[in-house]
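Hello Y.,

Per our agreement to keep a running log of every chain we model this quarter, I'm adding this entry. I've kept the format consistent with earlier entries: sequence first, then predicted structure.
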Amino acid sequence: FTLNSSCFLAFSQLAEKYGPIYTLHIGTRRVVVLHGYNIMKEALIDHGDNFMDRGILPMFGDVAKGHGLIFSSGERWKQHRRFTLTTLRNFGMGKRSVEERVQEEAQCLVEELRKTKGQPTDPTFILSCAPCNVICSILFRDRFKYNDEKFLHLMNLLNENFRLVNEPWIQLYNFLPAFGTYLPGEHKRILKINEELKDFILERVKEHQKVLDPNNPQDYIDCYLSKMQQEKDNPSLNLTWKI
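Predicted structure for the entry above:
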């Protein structure tokens, strides 16, 4: 959830009174607070394996149902993380590396900025397009032109999602999910947006299935589909469509 400066000060004051580890109850959730560099290092670095799991907020639980790389936890998340790191590392061996994709996008970004001919312009949207396009290149093989209608629709969905996640009503829903029926519809809007995002990705997954060559994967989706085929009879592997 989002904290403003006064919250950080309040947490610091509580740490002075109760020590570097203390517990708060925020809505229906019990939250353990670690305060200070030393205790954070001890937990996340020295004992990182023991603190690897993450709690799932209700809003994100509604979206992903515990699947995927970002919103899963436990053994499922570890498997996805291990697979993703291996896949990204292999992209630097005989295939277009992540670095090459970043360099290509940086060049496209520079060309797009040159079109302004030195006139004052708001670069916010273009600067957000560039990293999104790098991710699309890794996932889908190809980048999008900045004026591509499908890409613009994707960017609008993502920007709207990020805006809604920081809305006060969403924060309230995450800590008092039982009242979701009575809250304004922002959380329902997020669910609708994520269905559109899933449709966008599923369309590309189907395109990849038609031309998939397991011996020559070109992007993350190719690698994922190949892995699913290899491990389809392995009940201990939790690869799902929610990538």
